[in-house]
Each structure stands twice: as structure tokens, then as C-alpha cells.
Amino acid sequence: MATFPTYSKQKGGTPEVFQYNSIPEKLKGQIYHIWHDFFEQEGINNKDKHDIYEHIYKILLKETGKKRLYFNGLFFDDNPANQIEKYFESLDDVDATLDTIGVIFYIVEQVQNITNQQNPYIKLGYTADEAIKDLNIRFKENAVGYQYINSKIIRIDNQLLHETAVKPALQFIHQKEYQNANEEYLNAHDHFRHRRYQECLNECLKSFETTIKIICSKNKWSFNPNDTAKPLINILLTNKFLPNYNETYLGSLRTIMESSIPTVRNKNSGHGQGVQKRVVPEHLASYLLAITGATIKLLIETQNALEMKPSH
Description:
The protein is an all-alpha fold. It is 64% helix and 3% strand. The chain is built from twelve helices and two strands, in the order ααααααββαααααα.
């Protein structure tokens, strides 16, 4: 079930430089073992196992536009579990491989939820959380810069930024009350993974603005639904939402928040392209993803601390 601390892993340490252009065969094999261990465990009966594989198979057929996932030209095996396995083994396109992983582990989560609802007294020996944790460990061990978080595959560029800014932000906005902001921030990551950098910047700004609007609503601070980043930031600062230690700090914070997210987005993707086609570089989109995550984390942590204060 869980990953094993082999000698080579202890000796080699954790990779900090990731690659994105291929999925090693070793990693694909390890991922297969994770989903196989989950779906084939005793807590899931045989009929349900067949239905689960068939459901995954049909999703992949529709999403790929294929009539069958895998056919070697001589023999066709119509068993859904075998079709998924052989198809996954045959893939050499990174996006197609990640899409397949995303579908399978989304179903892993759904199976866990359905099992809990049907009989809360039956506990799976290998839970969805454990399977997803193992998946992310395998990505990291193989120096492949992707993670499965909040039901989506996202790309990570810097492990430190991911652990300190992006991942905590995703955990915070996964709360039901921040659902819209969560969806927009995940969309930004999805656009980034597929190299749609202008769209990535747009979703970053939307997520940032949505987070502020939710906070304003929670505190009953009036705002215009069409307000953009600058007036929304002013509402926070006017209501002393952020700590006002001194005017210099406040001014610096305002500058960082106003310039890092809205201005970068507006200059690079917010308006018509004009005569010359605008190109958003990958490093700029990566930076904005991180700074958006760090800022959203700051805002939600501040709101949570405010809600925990005793009322007078």
C-alpha cells in the first residue's frame, strides 16, 4: 500500500528540479499499482469492481473520442480493467497520460465517498486519501512536476513555493464557503499545465477578486459586484482588515497586492491584443500563480483569525 523507504531513496534524497515532458515507465507502473491496490481491495465487491472499471473506461472513450482504448491489431480484449491498463501503458503523450491519471483518481475519490455513504461502518483498508498521497509521493520521487490536489492534476515548478504558498492556498479555499475562488484558482493551474498562460493570468485575478468579495460578504462590508481589484483592496484597508502596524508597512502591502496580481494581469492579458500578438511567458504565469496563492492564503488566514476573536 504505502511507499517503501528503499536504500536508493534514502541515499538520493528528494529531487528539487522537476521535469514535465515525459512520464517515466517506472512511474506509470507505480501509479498502476496504486489504483490496482485501491480498486482490488476486499472492501469493494467484485460486481462493484467491474462497474468501476467500466465507468472509467466509458469516460476515457468519450474524452478521447475513441471506439476502443487499446487494440494491438490482432487481438481485442474487451475487459474494461485490461483495456485501461494496456491503454495507460501504451501512452507516450504527457497530457493524455495526466488526463488518464486525473480521471482514474477522481473515480478513486468517488468510490471512497460512495462507500462511506452506503455503509459508514465498513472502512476501506486502503483509503482514497492514502492512494492520492502515494500518487503524489511517486510523482515527487520520480522528479515529475505534477501533483493531484483537490481532484485535479496541477503543475508545480518550485517545491518550496508549492509547499509554502500554493498548497496551503488550495487547502484554505477548498472550504465550501470559498468554492468559487477555489474553482477559479484551480482553473488557473489547469490553464498553466496546458500552457494557456493568458487564461492562467485571467483566472488568477478572478480568484483573487472573488476571495476578497467573499470576505467582504462575510463581514457585511458593502461592495459593488462589478468592483475590480483596486476598489476591493481599498475596502479591506479602509475596514482595517489587515494589520495597520504603520503607514509604511500598509503602503508597501497595498503596492504589493495592487501591482503583483491585477497590474501584471491587466498589462499582459486583460485587454485586446492590438496589432501585435501578445505572448505571456511561462515564468511570468508561474510567478503569478505563486503570488496569488500566497496572497489568498494571507487573506483567508486573516479572516479566520478575525472570526475566532470573541465578540464584545
